[in-house]
From TrEMBL:
Lineage: Eukaryota, Viridiplantae, Streptophyta, Embryophyta, Tracheophyta
Recorded coiled-coil stretches: 92-119
Function: Essential component of the vacuolar proton pump (V-ATPase), a multimeric enzyme that catalyzes the translocation of protons across the membranes. Required for assembly and activity of the V-ATPase.
Origin species: Escallonia herrerae
Family: Belongs to the V-ATPase 116 kDa subunit family.
Record InterPro entries: V-ATPase_116kDa_su (IPR002490), V-type_ATPase_116kDa_su_euka (IPR026028)
GO MF assignments: ATPase binding; proton-transporting ATPase activity, rotational mechanism
Topology in membrane: Multi-pass membrane protein
Record protein name field: V-type proton ATPase subunit a
CC annotations in GO: vacuolar proton-transporting V-type ATPase, V0 domain
Organism superkingdom: Eukaryota
Segments traversing the membrane: 420-444, 465-483, 546-564, 576-599, 635-653, 716-747
Length: 790
């Protein structure tokens, strides 16, 4: 797999001549193979002018019906199943007819269900009106009967001189009304239901519109009822309005319509009320049975559709993609063959030929398809065979630019160098373990999470880079062991410290001082360095020098890869006028600085490397004095300085003129167009000026991570521990965990990731990687499920 990633696959431009009777099956089989990228030979035609536009329109209509079925299935509470209920060789015409019949049946069932449900809701409201209004009339009639009985008792009784005069007048009026029907008032009434939230406004408007010449009575319904118009459950009140006169009646009816009040007929005859309630209850029972039967039939139909929808949807998408691909083919002059052109890997030649033979045999075609390789000057697409582990690293490289055909691929080295440089800035084996555990969760649930369609943008991005995060976590544990930091706390994991207190009776070794009493700590930073007064200067110097060594090594690797690119592409100009002067210039300055760092570490010298490098340019002939690290250093510096000065014009001037000369010889009499590669030799100088700044930025990122971790540990966790209070300790632990996760495991991870990305794109890939190619996108059915609906 590593060798497959180093150079892109060898590609070839192929022409296919396919008979019309086997064209559909040939394209279908090539889609299953997924190793052929078709070229559009009808780019000048609009989509409506192409041969198979009608078939694509049919597929789009079937896709619309399937979307409608899916919406109805989800609305009914069923989830689409992936069970295969139909064969993959189903005829598209039969499927179209079947989908049309099912759609018509489902639409008819929906319409009938809506009508029945509306009628049921209206009858249910009518029943509530009959019950509540009947209760009101029954109560009013009982009161009227009691009052009438009282009047009769007073009329039959003897009058007394002590009886009030008003009572006598009331009895006289009642007696007169009961004996004279012409003086009785006939009141009309309107009954119905009004939304409870509108009931107060409804009552106020009625009162104002009729100037108080009405009597309104409302009864609250405890449970919400289904509104026949909107189909939603609404809290309502039953109302009855008594009025006098047609004018008041018209006003009341208009106000009811304005407030969305549903009106229902009602009679004050008790016998008729009982008969109407019985009749409505019977109709409700019949409608309930009818609705339940219809819903059961609809659920069975939707369940059947749910079993078939995914398979049908995939089939329709395949057919649509096949016709889209056939529209990219040109028709032969005899109109008996289709001509296709496209790219395929060289290793897939036999597979494609066998696929075409199988399509010819299955189509019962008398003539086989013709496969022939075309010669072309066009640059082929870039194709790397990746797996789920290497694909994420390749995406990091492709985000900078897709590799040119047969160009050295940085993705091979990125698998190791990217997580390692991240870990250099993130080094803490406690944080690394937390990061690894989070990644382990994604790896253990890989199958389940990969089958889910929607994970969310952030979760989907994190899941896609799970193997990158795993490598970053493992390298962080490794560098954390070197730095000897576990949430900024040192441990003596590999033996006892080499240092001890200067005086055996002292208690605070961090302020009195340390002396070396044992052999050097075997692995990583000695734990005694943490917390001492010289910790920051020592670790700053160590990490600065280490970052310089890693940065120079990475830049040298990029320049060396530019040599292999040039040799592979047989470009001697890039070797002699780009690779050689760049290598000399880089190592004359930064390579020499790296050598001084290593010599200083090995010899334990106190030489000031800043002074050495500055005066190498200002006073190259002066004696070095105490800053001399080895014999002949002065003369070596003069030679390296001269080589660096010679390398600058060597990079700047020869290559552009030689390229122009080659271009003129190749295209005599034609206008000269500047080439892209002319300024490649200038890039090293510009980027070398900023190398130190980027290295400092990386060191700063690591120091920020280390210092923040130390601050959270000392100022939060230890401070809470010192109070000897359980509540304060719990609060401190919670704050420490939140700060560690939010700041160090999220924000600092992102910061170190971006710095590692910058170092790869600018300091490494920019030395050799052109990245001006384009990806190989084969026609494949495996990608249909990931694509959005066209």
């Amino acid at each position: 797999m590593t060798m497959d990633l180093l150079r892109s696959e060898a590609m070839q431009l192929v022409q296919l001549i396919i008979p019309m009777e086997s064209a559909h099956r040939s394209v279908s089989y090539l889609g299953e193979l997924g190793l052929f990228q078709f070229k559009d030979l009808n780019a000048e035609k609009s989509p409506f002018q192409r041969t198979y536009a009608a078939q694509i329109k049919r597929c789009a209509e079937m896709a619309r019906k399937l979307r409608f079925f899916r919406e109805q299935t989800i609305k009914a509470g069923f989830s689409p199943s992936t069970r295969s209920m139909i064969g993959t060789d189903i005829n598209l015409d039969d499927l179209e007819v079947k989908l049309g019949e099912v759609e018509a049946e489902l639409i008819e069932m929906n319409v009938n269900s809506e009508k029945l449900q509306r009628a049921y809701s209206e009858l249910l409201e009518y029943k509530l009106v009959l019950q509540k209004a009947g209760e009101f009339f029954h109560s009013a009639q009982s009161i009227a009967t009691a009052q009438q009985k009282e009047v009769e008792e007073h009329r039959l009784g003897d009058g007394s001189i002590d009886s009030p005069l008003l009572s006598e007048q009331v009895l006289f009026c009642c007696r007169e009304l009961s004996t004279d029907p012409s003086k009785q008032v006939n009141l009309g009434f309107v009954t119905g239901l009004v939304p409870r939230e509108k009931s107060l406004a409804f009552e106020r408007i009625l009162f104002r519109a009729t100037r108080g010449n009405i009597f309104l009575k409302q009864a609250v319904i405890q449970d919400p009822v289904l509104d026949p118009v909107s189909g939603e459950k609404v809290e309502k009140n039953v109302f009855i309005v008594f009025y006098s006169g047609e004018r008041a009646k018209n006003k009341i009816l208009k106000i009811c319509d304005a407030f969305g009040a549903n009106r229902y007929p009602f009679t004050d005859d008790v016998g008729k009320q009982y008969h109407m309630i019985k009749e409505v209850s019977g109709k409700l029972s019949e409608l309930k049975i009818t609705i339940d039967t219809g819903l059961l039939h609809r659920e069975n139909l939707l369940q059947t559709i749910g079993y078939q929808s995914e398979q049908c949807n995939l089939l329709v998408k395949k057919e649509k993609s096949i016709y889209h691909t056939l529209n990219m083919l040109s028709i032969d002059v005899t109109k008996k063959c289709l001509v296709a052109e496209g790219w395929c890997p060289v290793f897939a030649t036999n597979q494609i030929q066998n696929t075409l033979r199988r399509a010819t045999f299955d189509s019962n075609s008398q003539v086989g398809a013709i496969f022939q390789v075309l010669r072309t000057e066009e640059s082929p697409p870039t194709y790397f065979r990746t797996n789920k582990f290497t694909s994420a690293f390749q995406e990091i490289v492709d985000a900078y630019g897709v590799a040119k055909y047969q160009e050295a691929n940085p993705g091979v080295y990125t698998i190791v160098t990217f997580p390692f440089l991240f870990a250099v800035m993130f080094g803490d084996w406690g944080h690394g373990i937390c990061l690894f555990l989070a990644t382990l969760y994604l790896l253990l649930r890989e199958k389940k999470l990969s089958s889910q369609q929607k994970l969310g943008d952030i979760m989907e991005m994190t899941f896609g880079g799970r193997y990158v995060i795993m490598m970053m976590a493992l390298f962080s544990i490794y560098t954390g062991l070197i730095y000897n930091e576990f949430f900024s706390v040192p441990f003596e994991l590999f033996g006892r410290s080499a240092y001890d207190c200067r005086d055996s009776s002292c208690r605070n070794a961090y302020t009195v001082g340390l002396i070396k009493v044992r052999d050097t700590y075997p692995f990583g930073v000695d734990p005694k360095w943490h917390g001492t007064r010289s910790e920051l200067p020592f670790l700053n110097s160590l990490k600065m020098k280490m970052s310089i060594l890693l940065g120079v090594a990475q830049m040298n690797l990029g320049i060396i890869l530019s040599y292999f690119n040039a040799r592979y592409l047989r470009n001697d100009l890039n070797i002699w006028y780009q690779f050689v002067p760049q290598l000399i210039f880089l190592n004359s300055l930064f390579g020499y600085l790296s050598l001084l760092i290593i010599v200083k570490w090995c010899t334990g010298s106190q030489a000031d490397l800043y002074h050495v490098m500055i005066y190498m340019f200002l006073s190259p002939t002066d004696d070095l004095g105490d800053n001399q690290l080895f014999i002949g250093q002065k003369y070596l510096q003069i030679v390296l300085l001269l080589l660096a000065l010679v390398a600058i014009p060597w990079m700047l001037f020869p290559k552009p003129f030689l390229l122009k000369k080659q271009h003129l010889e190749r295209h005599r009499g034609q206008s000269y167009t500047p080439l892209h590669n002319i300024d490649d030799s200038l890039e090293l100088e510009a980027h070398s000026d900023f190398t130190a700044m980027r290295i400092l930025s990386s060191v700063k990122c690591f120091l920020a991570h280390s210092e923040l971790s130390s601050v959270f540990y000392e100022k939060v966790l230890l401070l809470a521990w010192g109070f000897n209070n359980v509540i304060i300790l719990i609060v401190g632990v919670v704050v420490f965990v939140c700060a560690t996760v939010g700041v160090l495991l999220v924000m600092e991870t992102l910061s170190a990731f971006l710095h590692a990305l910058q170092l790869h794109w600018v300091e490494f890939q920019n030395k050799f990687y052109e990245g001006d190619g384009y990806k190989f996108y084969p026609y494949s059915f495996s990608l249909i499920g990931e694509q959005e609906e066209i």
